[in-house]
């Protein structure tokens, strides 16, 4: 009984005189029977005949490793010494800069105080030469133009950068925001306004220089307090403006969370603005008030001060 075609015997591998192995047709079977490559056999034969190839000894390898570590250590030490050598110079420069900033800040404060004292002296001597009517008129004009310190009741609007100010532009308070708020306060009846203690006049710009906000020539930073003296209903009128509504939305939006707060304050004190450089001046003659018309107030109406 036939059990199927007989399997062909495996063909032996013949080695020609050149020593090269020649594969027969049944290569897969031969691979399973003799998986070792001939090169390994030749290498083993050469090792038996000629001995092992020369290799680095254990101590040689250790010496090379130690030498590499020494070289790396020397490089790190040199780099460290250079950093340490330069550190005192940088620290000294930084210390000198801080001292210079503090010295110039103190000089500026002293000059500001000196200017304020001289202005008070000018006002005192000027009022000695004027009658009561002229003094009242002068004080009213100075308060209106911002060159005289005023006190009264009013409102403080606080703006602050949101936590995402570095990535979200709408989360950062810009000069435009301060302009919008101050304009809304003027429209609500404000008679005197200051931003972070800097009094606004008709010639005081609110602008950006790089990433800084300037009030006139003074640099202000967040939070920004916009203080305004005016009538008792000024806070309600301001809160009803579209500007206040927009900033309430930015405050409540989780993406921006811009700081925005409106507080009514009593006895606010706004400093005088820096006296502008006058090119031409003319003293107006007060016109007599019509019969029955009250004379204008000589101070802001907020609190009657």
Describe the protein's architecture and organization:
This protein has 305 residues and is α+β, with helices and mostly antiparallel strands. The protein has a domain at 151-274: Alpha-Beta Plaits. The protein is 44% helix and 15% strand. It has helices at residues 27-33, 38-50, 58-128, 132-145, 175-187, 234-239, 242-252; strands at 150-160, 192-195, 198-199, 206-209, 212-215, 218-220, 224-229, 259-270. It is elongated. The N and C termini lie far apart (131 Å). Mean pLDDT is 80; it is low at 1-14 and 292-298.
Task: Throw out a few tags for this protein.
disordered N terminus; Alpha-Beta Plaits; 7 helices; alpha+beta
User: What is the end-to-end distance?
Assistant: 131 Å
Structural class: alpha+beta
Order of adjacent strands in the largest pleated sheet: 3-2-7-1-8
* Global outline: elongated
Number of strands: 8
- In DSSP terms (H or I, runs of 4 or more residues), the helix count works out at 7
| Named CATH architecture of the domain at 151-274 | 2-Layer Sandwich
Rg calc:
45 Å
CATH superfamily of the domain at 151-274: Protein of unknown function DUF881
Oligomeric category: single chain
What percent of residues are in strands?
Answer: 15-25%
Helix content: 40-55%
CATH topology of the domain at 151-274: Alpha-Beta Plaits
List low-pLDDT spans. 1-14, 292-298
CATH class of the domain at 151-274: Alpha Beta
How would a crystallographer describe the biggest sheet? 5 strands, antiparallel
User: Which whole number gives the mean pLDDT?
Assistant: 80
